[in-house]
């Protein structure tokens, strides 16, 4: 089973986490099931950017993002070449290292 490592995030998982996942699950679902509350404002329908994550290792093992996901990602805070939407990133059989960006647009909007 692939192992998903979440790097520490100040609020969502201060210690980081290493979680056994199943092929075919999304990174967001694995996080949520394990108490890492990555925001998902549009309920996983690829219509927001709150579930933005960055895949630090294993990016190429994921199925490629489609156009809709890329369009949404363009609006994400802190976009990187290895950014994905957590609800659209389907785990294959390889391990991943995932970083949850410090901010997402929801938080930015609330704070400023
Ligand atoms: S939860 Fe909105 S795009 Fe993933």
Automatic annotation (TrEMBL):
Lineage: Bacteria, Pseudomonadati, Pseudomonadota, Gammaproteobacteria, Alteromonadales
Cofactor(s) recorded in Swiss-Prot or TrEMBL: [2Fe-2S] cluster
InterPro entries per the UniProt record, alphabetical: 2Fe-2S_ferredoxin-like_sf, 2Fe-2S_ferredoxin-type, Adrenodoxin-like, Adrenodoxin_Fe-S_BS, Beta-grasp_dom_sf, Fdx_isc
Name by which UniProt lists this protein: 2Fe-2S ferredoxin
CDD domains according to UniProt: fer2 (cd00207)
NCBIfam families attached to this UniProt entry: fdx_isc
Pfam family, one: Fer2
SUPFAM superfamilies: 2Fe-2S ferredoxin-like (SSF54292)
Family: Belongs to the adrenodoxin/putidaredoxin family.
Domain 2Fe-2S ferredoxin-type as annotated: residue spans: 2-104
């Amino acid at each position: 089973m692939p192992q998903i490592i979440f790097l520490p995030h100040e609020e969502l998982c201060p210690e980081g986490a290493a979680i056994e996942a199943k092929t075919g699950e999304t990174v967001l679902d694995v996080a949520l099931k394990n108490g890492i509350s990555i925001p998902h404002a549009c309920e996983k329908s690829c219509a927001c950017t709150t579930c933005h994550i960055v895949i630090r290792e294993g990016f190429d093992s994921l199925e490629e993002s489609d156009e809709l996901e890329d369009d949404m990602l363009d609006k994400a805070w802190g976009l990187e070449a290895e950014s994905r939407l957590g609800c659209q990133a389907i785990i294959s059989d390889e391990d991943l290292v995932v970083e949850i960006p410090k901010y997402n647009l929801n938080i930015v909007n609330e704070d400023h």
